[in-house]
Amino acid sequence: MSTVTPIVKNILIVAGDVSGDLHAAGLIRALKEADPDVRITSVGGKNMQAVSDEFLFDLAGKGAHGFIEPLKKMPMWIRLLNQLRDYMETKNPVALIVVDFYGFNHQVLGMAKHRNIPAYYYVTPQVWASRQYRAKRLAALTKKMFVIYPFEPEFHQKFGGNAVFLGNPLLDIMPLPAEKSYDVSDHKNHAWKLGMLPGSRMGEIKRLTPVFYQAFKQTLKEFPNTQAYMFLLPDADEQVFLDLIGEKPHDNFHLVKDKNYGLRSQMDFLLACSGTATLENALLGVPMVVAYKLFWPTYQIAKMVIKVPYISLVNLLSRKEVVKELIQQDASARALAAETMAMFQNPQKLADMREELLKLRASLGKSGVAKRAAQEILDDLKQN
């Protein structure tokens, strides 16, 4: 009696930064739940490594962003691209899924296209904001794109792309907003909770950590009971932040590693680096001011290629200035403190901003995004 050897459904998934690693891990879990026979090989970060059958490389831990910094990573990228090319030729995966990180992933997509491996983009890069010509290339290299904002399918359709919006995958991760009241009788002596999000990349952290800390110290002059919380990634070295502060921290200052957004959701106001964190804050309904400080040459290039009126996702999606944006030299400790104190002096401003942020959350769909995307990919592969 002969036995039939089951076909191995081997899917290769590649992500290159911290947020991509998180979203890809959620998609991997959903794929395995929908079809236990799926075998996942991945390049990404620690979250993906924990749920994959085979893990090739921690790219998320070594990722680079911007225009100049990736050049330093080219030798590493070339070695990894060669490894992925060999993997595709020897293992012949049934599909490739890439997550954000265009600079590296468009090359991986090209290799898959050359080998007739169907490719999907989960969390498509924001090519609508800059370098829109990339949308045509994405259309040619992917079978389907899972975009994260409701206006994106129409944008990609103009370039021939097959893009679908199933909701924003942050909704699979973020808790519902906590109950919050800004009914404060004694503004000056209230124990305000001021959160600080200096970013996940070392360049951002170096540029913003000392500025955020000094903004807190200036805020203390008017609101002496303010408690400050600087949020670090789980594997961050606290000493790096203490060194950047450059002095013994004030007793009201705390370095924290928050799990499941529980502490961040309790903040009254946040000083936030531009990026995904601003959208996370919006989903939590926590008011903020956004700071944007780039390496000077990178910023000069960015000014030439970025084609949108705002830098924060909150304002872009709202199509108006919901949160204040402070850019480059304007992102000073004095300006950040002034914005913070204006909010603490008039809590109705905090309440009004929170209301606008929660409207934005409602526009981004419902949770279960990874499950819906996983099922679409598996259904699609059955038709191949």
Short synopsis of the structure:
By secondary structure, the chain is an alpha/beta fold. It has 14 helices and 13 strands.
Description:
The chain is 43% helix and 16% strand. The chain has 384 residues and is of the alpha/beta class. The strands form two sheets. It has a seven-stranded parallel β-sheet with strand order 3-2-1-4-5-6-7, with helices on both faces. Strands 10-9-8-11-12-13 form a six-stranded parallel β-sheet, sandwiched between helices. Helix 9 links the parallel strand 11 and strand 12. The longest helix has 21 residues, at 202-222. 40% of the residues are buried. The model is unreliable at 1-7 and 295-305 (pLDDT under 50).
Unreliable stretches (pLDDT < 50, length at least 5) are 1-7, 295-305
Query: Considering the protein shown, what is the CATH homologous superfamily of the largest domain?
Result: Glycogen Phosphorylase B
- CA-atom Rg in angstroms: 22 Å
Structural class: alpha/beta
Q: Note the overall shape.
A: elongated
> What is the helix content?
40-55%
Largest sheet: 7 strands, parallel
Number of helices: 14
